[in-house]
Amino acid sequence: MFPRTALRICVILLLAVPAFARNRDVSGHYERNGENEQASLDVTTLPGDRVKVSGIALWNTRNEKYGPNIGELEFEATLKDDVVSWSDRDGYRIVIRFSRNALEVTEHAVDGHFGMNVTFAGHYARTAAKPAN
Question: All domains of the chain, ordered by start, with CATH?
Answer without folding.
Answer: 24-128 (2.40.128)
